[in-house]
Design a protein that fits this description.
four-stranded antiparallel beta sheet, alpha+beta, elongated, about 200 residues
Length: about 200
């Protein structure tokens, strides 16, 4: 039976497993020789991602060096220097090999990181295993995050009063836990409570 709280992404030899838990997302990241497990709290997951492309700088510069050497050897052969043409071909083949592995190693990620200190943010491969599957999983994460934030920062705990309360409500709005209408009402309640010293205003009778 498919667990709707679990999600997997595969790319070459890498496997990333995600599991929604009550206060965040557990992640298992496995490669050929490395494996790590960590949890991203909901407070550290942003509404919108930023894009990032990761690639191997070593493979890139190896490609540049070998193609450069192939070009130098080729020019030397053309101008009559005592350079075997096969040397240029060998360098070119090395350059082609590194270029291929460089292109294969490039990966695009979506990073959902908020301004909360955490060891690792929520990072997912872009459009894997499919755009629809990824979108569905991220929607579940955001819905679970919204429920968690409302329960733990709005319903269970008192928001407080004064400037600190308004800051907290602004943060909840930015995290998508409350709507603009809820924010306006709660802010008005905070201001009203602060005006009367945290007690109900006189009835006017």
């Amino acid at each position: 039976m498919l667990d709707e709280n679990r999600f997997e992404q595969r790319r070459l030899a890498n496997l990333m497993k995600f599991r929604l838990v009550h206060d965040g997302v557990e992640v298992i990241d496995r490669g050929l020789i490395t494996s790590s497990k960590y949890k991203v709290p909901f407070e550290a997951i942003s509404l919108e991602p930023r894009e990032a492309t990761v690639s191997s700088s070593f493979r890139f510069w190896a490609t540049v060096v070998f193609f450069g050497l192939a070009a130098i050897m080729g020019i030397s052969t053309l101008v009559g220097q005592d350079t075997p043409a096969s040397t240029s071909l060998i360098y070119a083949l090395f350059g082609l090999g590194f270029a291929t592995t460089y292109l294969m190693s490039r990966a695009k990620f979506l990073i959902y990181d908020d301004a909360v200190e955490t060891k690792r943010p929520l990072i997912v491969y872009e459009n894997k295993p499919s755009p629809a599957a990824l979108e569905s999983f991220i929607e579940k994460v955001q819905n679970k995050k919204r429920e968690y934030l409302r329960m733990n920062h709005l319903l269970r705990n008192e928001v407080g009063a004064g400037v600190d309360a308004i800051h907290k409500l602004t943060w909840l709005l930015g995290m998508g836990a409350i709507s603009e209408e809820e924010f306006a009402k709660l802010k008005a309640d905070v201001i009203q409570g602060a005006r009367w010293g945290g007690i109900s205003p006189p009835s006017g009778n």
